[in-house]
Amino acid sequence: MLAACIIAFSMYSKVPMPKADWNEKNMKYAFCFFPFVGAVLGVIIYGIGTLLFHIHVSELCFAALMTVLPILYTGGIHVDGLLDTLDALHSYGDREKKLEILKDPHTGAFAIIGAVCYFVLSLGVWSEISPEGLPIIAVGYVLTRACSGLSIVTFTLAKNTGLAATFSDMSHKSRVKVTMFVYSVVCFIALLWIDMFLGIGVIAVSLVMFAYHYHICKKEFGGITGDLAGYFLQLNELAILIWIAIGCRIGGMG
What we know:
This protein is an all-alpha fold. It has helices at residues 2-12, 24-27, 34-54, 59-74, 77-89, 95-103, 109-126, 134-154, 163-170, 173-194, 196-221, 226-250.
């Protein structure tokens, strides 16, 4: 289990970790710790965000730091999936062409345009976040990764090679599914306990985004890939931020 945890953090974060063998035994439960990576990110965001509010930094400085922190923590692995997927979707080619673009190491115009739009929007939304919204956002990082992990072991694979296929094939799928469901339920309870109104919104947003994720995977690519899982993760995190910014203004903790 310790080796599985090390693999999860080594793959999906920049947290220094001791070496572990990436063998079938250790990989079997590695995905069970994927939401733990989100939990640590949530603690970092909550802690640093609270500190920044306490020392009264400007809204722009706060938003910039909070936009960059998740990228520094993850190393941008999920952003890579976002950009590759944007290029593929806007190619308007057939399924094989889209899958080929996902493997292409070159960055296309739509990836650059999408990245600029994504981070400008993220910067703007973060500038609207109040201190009371931070714990909800922190839980959102765990929920998003639980949903992303669930898709990897539940959706049909688009291809038999790549990161998603490696983790899916080596995982104990039934136990990983149960674990992800448990994570999700715990997150639902935590969200509703923190704030009923905002919590219901986060749950609804995540379910809608997960349905969209399934639709895109099935219709456009014929299944899930690591890039598509990263695409969903980034979009869901942004969607949660947008909801918190709006929700705090129209009700709940605002």
